[in-house]
Description:
- By secondary structure, this protein is α/β, with parallel strands linked by helices.
- It has 2 domains: 1-124, Up-down Bundle (de novo design (two linked rop proteins)), CATH 1.20.1440; 127-263 and 310-385, Alpha/Beta hydrolase fold, catalytic domain (Rossmann fold, 3-Layer(aba) Sandwich), CATH 3.40.50.1820.
- Helices cover 46% and strands 15% of the residues.
- The chain contains 15 helices and 8 strands.
- An 8-stranded mixed beta sheet has the order 1-2-4-3-5-6-7-8, with helices on both faces.
- Helix 10 (238-248) links the parallel strand 5 and strand 6.
- Helix 2 runs antiparallel to helix 3 (54-75), helix 9 packs across helix 10 (238-248) and helix 11 runs antiparallel to helix 13.
- It is globular, with a radius of gyration of 20 Å.
- It starts with 14 loop residues before the first helix and ends with a helix.
- 51% of the residues are buried.
Amino acid sequence: MASNGPWIEHFPGNFVWSNAVLVTKGMAPYGAVALGEIDEVCERLKQRQSEPDAWRQEWCALASRLEKVADRAAAEGHQFTAGNYYLRAGMYYFTGERFVLPGEQKQEIGRKSLQCQHAGLERRYPNLERVEVPYENTTLPALFMKAPGVSGRAPTVVVFNGMDNCKEMSVLFAGLEFAARGWHTLAIDGPGQGESLRLRDLHARHDYEVPGKAAYEYVAARPEVDPKKVVIMGYSFGGYYAARIAAFEHRYVAGVAFAALHWDLAAWQIEIKRRHETDPKTTAQSTFHFRWVMGADTMDAAIEKAKQFSLAGVAEKITRPFLIVHAQDDKVVPVASAHKLFEAVGSKRKTLKILTAGDGGTYHAQADNRQVGVDYIADWISDNI
Length: 385
């Protein structure tokens, strides 16, 4: 797959929009979006790239239209059809919310996204359960997908998202494949992610072993789960979280970083800040997103917090089998970070898989072809637990 072709660079010269569209397109194999609908929106957006509110308007208009179709189908008793439309509406609301500044409007779009996604998921996947994971003095929202037809205790994968994603995405692109292999999945929005950030104001923390421990103890207590075969996985920014959790919570039998994170997160964000000041279209990250995730009032404060997000002196504490999957041509997190993480991991059973265009996926966290990465991960888990 060409790393600069129209599939990846939908808006030439506009990395921030192209990246967001690719993340959305990547959900097409799982029925969460439709390529024709995406193309319809993007053709209009090509003419509106200079309009600050065009992105929200176009994606949310499509979402609203599909939500109304879903409502009619549900009222007529056509629940499977309603589920399909709700699922797509929810994903488009999620995409439309992406560049809206934090505030009431952003929160309302986020709420509608979750409402529609859940209305779709519960109609299409009866093996899916919405759950709350006890965490400090509150709970973390999660989705537990059971592997159909499995009796007794089975392996389970806990999946934490990246900075731009949500559990409603990972339960599909990862959970469906894991379920087909006889494993359960807990897709969870940790602090700074998805519903936890949007509706509960829980911001990111560097010591992710705390929510990682909470997730482990929740699944280990479930009667369907084999507590000795629980794997921790994180993708994109979650590659840092998975490594951090694996280093300190040794009850996980193995760990997976589906893309490594920048080794020096603060230096990366300093460079992102510089780009925002010169040409915001040259980065995949919006001008406010990182500080919102970090719960910081300014970018400088967010960068200061980012200094704590380091695996130096941490990765060496990973003793269980650990996998890193990364794209050779990753333009979000350079492949050098994956090599550096691999060298630092202390486990004797560690694997680094660098995927190339010849493998069928060349983008960050395989957003251009998730199945390639997820298949490799699932095979590795099968071989290592």
